[in-house]
Structure to design on (222 residues):
């Protein structure tokens, strides 16, 4: 079956794409939503422009959906974009990186049902420590691109998701109930290298902005 990946450039959508390919599905395209609303309930926004670079090194076409990011209306924009991708690439389904967000998963499922295509959520309800451990084991190089919850601060920006990162996040979960994999929006991530890439992306610069426990890092790639 030919599939499109609902793609943000972060760890979850990238890992979901890798799992789908490993299971023998044909990955035909990436589908990314460029939202004007930085606080969108549905879509990842940090460094979203850089999915173009990821698509290049993955050697996959990229379908870009633009939206103002208004609640519910953005879903209509998503539906139009998925419909376009289905027609252009002959997709039989969509893959998402949803782990525990019922809000996101249910809305994508509703769109897929309406368009009579499958919706695959290979990470759904996966243990989140296990998810991070699998990323590390399978050589996904992932960095933190934004933090949005106490006690995370600007010092976490750019950190690689490695064994030490997981250990610290488990401790923060025990003490502050911070979600280990960032599923509560505590942090955002960007994949610099993984088995799906034909060449590694190189970060050559960055710009940080924010205050308190809300910070973002704008990455510059070579």
């Amino acid at each position: 079956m030919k599939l499109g990946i609902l793609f943000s450039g972060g760890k979850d959508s990238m890992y979901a794409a890798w799992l789908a390919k490993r299971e023998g599905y044909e990955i035909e395209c990436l589908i990314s939503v460029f939202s004007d609303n930085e606080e969108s309930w549905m879509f990842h926004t940090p460094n979203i422009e850089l999915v173009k670079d990821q698509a290049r090194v993955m050697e996959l076409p990229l379908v870009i959906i633009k939206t103002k990011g208004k609640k519910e209306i953005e879903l209509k924009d998503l539906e139009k974009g998925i419909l376009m991708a289905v027609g252009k690439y002959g997709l039989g389904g969509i893959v998402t990186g949803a782990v525990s967000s019922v809000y996101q998963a249910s809305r994508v499922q509703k769109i897929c049902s309406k368009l009579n295509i499958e919706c695959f959520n290979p990470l759904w309800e996966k243990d989140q420590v296990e998810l991070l451990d699998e990323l590390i084991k399978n050589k996904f190089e992932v960095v933190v691109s934004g933090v949005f919850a106490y006690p995370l601060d600007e010092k976490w920006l750019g950190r690689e998701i490695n064994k030490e990162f997981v250990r610290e996040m488990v401790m923060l979960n025990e003490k502050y109930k911070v979600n280990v994999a960032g599923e509560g929006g505590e942090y955002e991530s960007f994949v610099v290298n993984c088995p799906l890439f034909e060449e590694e992306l190189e970060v050559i610069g960055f710009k940080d902005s924010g205050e308190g426990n809300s910070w973002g890092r704008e990455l510059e790639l070579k």
Remarks:
- Helices lie at 11-22, 51-58, 73-89, 102-115, 128-137, 163-176.
- The beta strands are 2-6, 26-35, 62-67, 93-95, 118-120, 141-147, 187-193, 203-211, 214-221.
- The two ends are 34 Å apart (CA to CA).
